[in-house]
Each structure stands twice: as C-alpha cells, then as structure tokens.
Amino acid sequence: MAKLQYKKESGALHIGGGRFFYAQKPVEVTAKERDELLKLYPDLEEVSDSKEEVQKESKTKKTKE
C-alpha cells in the first residue's frame, strides 16, 4: 500500500469525510486513492519506508537532546 502525508513540518490537512493527514505521520492508502488524492491536494506527498525511518530517527534524536 502507498503512504501519504502532509508536506508541512507541522499541522494537519482535513480533506473531509473525517479524513486527516498529519505532518510527519504517513497514512496508508490504496494505489487508486493515492493517485486521486495527489491530484486533488498538492499539500500531500507520497513517502517511502526509508523516509519514514529517517523521520523517526530525527524525532528520537530531538527527544534525547
């Protein structure tokens, strides 16, 4: 499954129907949903597993400091 998240550093994007996309928190969507959402909402981006791992590592470093 594809993963999308809000492009900004913080905040959330509410797209209606009770769906929210938060910054730095990927949401799994189907390939069809991914294509439709990326066309409709330029503030969303697709993320890969490697990008998720980098974000988790940076959050862990921030909390340790």
N-to-C span = 34 Å
Helix/strand-derived class? Answer: alpha+beta
Number of domains: 1
What is the 3D shape? Answer: globular
Find the count of extended strands (DSSP E, 2+ residues): 5
Task: Note down, in words, how this protein is organized.
- This protein has 65 residues and is α+β, with helices and mostly antiparallel strands.
- The protein has one domain (2-64).
- Helices cover 40% and strands 32% of the residues.
- It has two helices and five strands; from the N terminus they run E-E-E-E-H-E-H.
- The protein has a three-stranded antiparallel sheet. Strands 2-3 form a two-stranded antiparallel sheet.
- A hairpin with a 2-residue loop joins strand 2 and strand 3.
- The protein is globular.
- The protein starts with a strand and ends with a helix.
- 11% of the residues are buried.
- The model has no long low-confidence stretch (mean pLDDT 84).
Summed up:
This protein is of the alpha+beta class and 65 residues long.
SSE diagram, text form:
Layout (H helix, E strand, L loop, with lengths): L1 E5 L5 E5 L2 E4 L4 E3 L1 H10 L3 E4 L1 H16 L1
Antiparallel strand pairs: 1-4, 1-5, 2-3
Task: Record keyword descriptors for this entry.
65 residues, alpha+beta, three-stranded antiparallel beta sheet, two-stranded antiparallel ribbon, 2 helices, 5 strands, 40% helix
